[in-house]
């Protein structure tokens, strides 16, 4: 097996990664606070009108999906750039398009009162019942289009660099070893995961761009129409894939950082490569599980969605989560907040997959679809999974900086995390578990999702959920303040 | 029924996962050579993989045998039919009374945007649903076991009055 040479990270790239994380972290905290407002409103502890609630809901989801993508891209770029020659200019363009798109999205909501949900389900953006203008709808969807275009460029640049170094995307997924046993040039996990992200997201973003473009055209030229079922397929294919890929990008932090803590390598063997090739296919074809209650869909597609949703959990549980447990088991690891968050992320991802798979069983979906069970499972693997990866990476960078400042030797003990950092981790863990637990319990009690006003019977869930949400926000505030406090020195060192 | 099973199964599986994490974390500060750990873990992983498959295949077959799609479920032609059309923000039902114990076919569509046709019993428990979509008719066949007043709640976000889009069906003996 050939030795992998690490390339130096260009200073511009390093600073852009810090910029991505600062933006993503700030959006995380801000939009978590918006989420808390929504729960307080449902709990009837805060008077928020339904129009404002649905605007907050739209903003919360759209901004957090974008922030997850930014954080995932930062992690991917940081580690992928050690192996292939990426373009910092493209990374900068994606940051610029994200900021422009975010201003458009937030402007459409805050100024234009747009509140059709981040899924912009055709034809709702055009039929608002007088709540928002066509211009607001066009600005919102245009903002998503701009953000998607930036990510398309970023993934194309990653694919270009991987093809340039390894000779093809199949080689980026490690197929020579997987199918022929050729271990002469096995790509590291960061390359494998980035290849998967590029393949899935290029297809997803192009589909999203198609449905967004037609939806925008439909606003001003009503004769330009789209079949609602086709639109739904395109939207959920785009949304499902784009959101899931944020985790597949961010998990690179676990693959790269846990080996640093344990002194044990995370080698891409055949099982690992098979899991990632399978995940590439599964993440693309699993999306019809969002349409299980659309009885007009071809039944074979929905039956296949149940089967694929089940199998898509196997690589997560059996390869990645199991691999993380294996690498820390009796490793003598010295835990800190960074490694603790990364380990929590493995539990969050694998744990969230369980209720997600159960929801994808058609007979269960019949009584769970669009109840609180759904935000229950996706907050499980995004809040406790994906965001823990992102915050863990931020702490890792902060610690790297501290080690360097302390004398830059590999064995130099880094100053320990503060008590406040550990308290933040505790609040995030307890708050996160309680928060998703209440969502799931509300879901099994049939409480619908995306309802601005709740019936009196549901208020106890909302109130308990609000308390846990406040704990999550407190934990995230500590994480962000620690990172932002360290940012000037990290920037100067870049 | 389906909700309780989903909840209990989720709790059991997440708790098992948590136990695995706690087991490993509790021993993580001890130090052993990696090779024997890997050897043991790979053996365990193979067993885990096969256990998931062995549990998953019959569970999949069993649940797929109970899917609610009329085209595949072999439902005979029900004699009770309700046409349901969603509007922003009300339901138009061709009838609002049906008999318990006999299948009802709901022909669900929408006149404007996407809605969700969720049937709730008197205990506010969701018993069945389908999407209401412009240009399509979704056929939902459901047999009410108990008489009572059932509510139709909108389960697909459809605009600012989404949460007030409620109708009632009276199920009689």
Q: Which SSEs are present, and which pair or pack?
A:
The complex is a heterodimer of chains A (494) and B (173).
Chain A lengths: L10 H32 L7 H31 L7 H23 L23 H33 L2 H4 L2 H6 L8 H32 L7 H23 L1 H11 L7 H16 L13 H30 L8 H23 L2 H7 L4 H33 L13 H26 L14 H35 L1
Chain B lengths: L1 H26 L6 H31 L5 H4 L6 E8 L2 E4 L3 E3 L3 E8 L4 E6 L5 E7 L5 E6 L4 E7 L11 E7 L1
Parallel strand pairs in B: 1-4, 3-9
Antiparallel strand pairs in B: 1-2, 4-7, 5-6, 5-8, 8-9
Can you tell me about this structure?
The complex is a heterodimer of chains A (494) and B (173). Chain A has 494 residues and is mainly α. Chain A contains 16 helices and no strands. In chain A, helix 1 runs antiparallel to helix 16, helix 11 packs antiparallel against helix 12 and helix 14 packs parallel to helix 16. Helix content of chain B is 35%, strand content 32%. The mean pLDDT of chain B is 94. Chain B contains 3 helices and 9 strands. By secondary structure, chain B is of the alpha+beta class. Classes of the chains: A mainly alpha (494), B alpha+beta (173). Chains A and B meet through helix 2, helix 8, helix 11, helix 12 and helix 13 of A and helix 1, helix 2, helix 3, strand 5 and strand 6 of B.
């Amino acid at each position: 097996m050939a030795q992998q040479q690490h390339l130096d990270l260009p200073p511009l790239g390093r600073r852009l990664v810090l910029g991505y994380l600062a933006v993503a972290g700030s959006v995380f905290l801000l939009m978590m606070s918006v989420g808390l407002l929504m729960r307080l409103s449902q709990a009837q502890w805060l008077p928020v009108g339904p129009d404002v609630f649905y605007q907050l809901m739209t903003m919360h989801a759209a901004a957090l999906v974008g922030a997850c993508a930014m954080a995932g891209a930062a992690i991917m770029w940081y580690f992928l750039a050690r192996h292939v020659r990426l373009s910092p200019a493209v990374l900068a363009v994606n940051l610029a398009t994200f900021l422009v798109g975010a201003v458009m999205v937030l402007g459409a909501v805050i100024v234009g009162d747009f509140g059709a949900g981040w899924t912009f389900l055709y034809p709702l953006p055009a039929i608002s019942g007088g709540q928002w203008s066509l211009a607001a709808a066009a600005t919102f969807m245009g903002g998503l289009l701009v953000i998607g275009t930036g990510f398309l460029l970023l993934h194309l640049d990653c694919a270009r660099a991987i093809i340039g170094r390894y000779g093809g995307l199949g080689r980026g997924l490690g197929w020579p070893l997987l199918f022929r046993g050729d271990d002469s040039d096995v790509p590291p996990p960061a390359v494998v995961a980035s290849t998967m992200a590029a393949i899935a997201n290029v297809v997803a973003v192009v589909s999203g761009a198609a449905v967004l473009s037609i939806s925008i055209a439909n606003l001003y030229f009503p004769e330009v129409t789209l079949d609602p079922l086709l639109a739904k397929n395109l939207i959920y294919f785009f949304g499902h894939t784009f959101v899931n890929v944020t985790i597949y990008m961010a998990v690179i932090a676990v693959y790269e950082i846990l080996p640093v803590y344990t002194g044990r390598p995370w080698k891409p063997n055949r099982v690992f490569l098979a899991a990632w090739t399978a995940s590439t296919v599964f993440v693309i074809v699993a999306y019809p599980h969002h349409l299980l209650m659309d009885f007009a869909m071809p039944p074979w597609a929905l039956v296949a969605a149940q089967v694929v949703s089940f199998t898509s959990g196997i690589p997560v549980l059996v390869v990645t989560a199991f691999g993380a447990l294996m690498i820390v088991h009796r490793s003598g690891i010295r835990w800190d907040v960074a490694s603790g968050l990364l380990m929590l992320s493995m539990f969050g991802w694998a744990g969230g997959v369980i209720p997600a798979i159960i929801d994808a069983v058609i007979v269960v979906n019949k009584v769970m679809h669009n109840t609180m069970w759904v935000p229950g499972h996706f907050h499980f693997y995004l809040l406790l999974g994906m965001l823990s990866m992102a915050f863990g990476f931020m702490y890792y960078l902060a610690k790297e900086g501290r080690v360097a400042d302390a004398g830059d030797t590999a064995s130099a003990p880094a100053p320990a995390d503060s008590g406040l950092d550990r308290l933040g981790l505790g609040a995030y863990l307890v708050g996160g578990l309680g928060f998703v637990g209440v969502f799931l319990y509300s879901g099994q009690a049939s409480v619908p999702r995306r309802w601005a006003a709740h019936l009196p019977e549901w208020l106890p869930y909302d109130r308990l959920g609000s308390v846990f949400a406040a704990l999550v926000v407190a934990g995230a505030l500590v994480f962000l303040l620690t990172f932002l406090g360290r940012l000037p020195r990290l920037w100067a060192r870049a | 029924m389906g909700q309780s099973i989903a909840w209990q199964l989720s709790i059991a599986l997440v708790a098992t996962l948590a136990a695995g994490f706690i087991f490993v974390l509790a021993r993580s500060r001890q130090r052993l050579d990696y090779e024997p750990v890997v050897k043991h873990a790979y053996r365990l992983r193979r067993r885990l993989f096969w256990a998931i498959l062995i549990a998953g295949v019959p569970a999949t077959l069993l649940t797929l045998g109970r899917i609610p799609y009329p085209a595949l479920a072999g439902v005979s032609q029900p004699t009770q039919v309700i046409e349901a059309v969603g509007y922003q923000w009300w339901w138009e039902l061709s009838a609002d009374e049906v008999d318990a114990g006999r299948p009802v076919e709901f022909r669900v569509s929408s006149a404007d945007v996407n809605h969700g046709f969720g049937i709730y019993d008197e205990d506010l428990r969701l018993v069945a649903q389908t999407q209401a979509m412009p240009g399509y008719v979704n056929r939902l066949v459901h047999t009410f076991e108990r008489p009572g007043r059932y509510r139709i709640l909108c389960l697909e976000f459809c605009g600012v009055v989404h949460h007030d889009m409620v109708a009632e069906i009276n199920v009689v003996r």
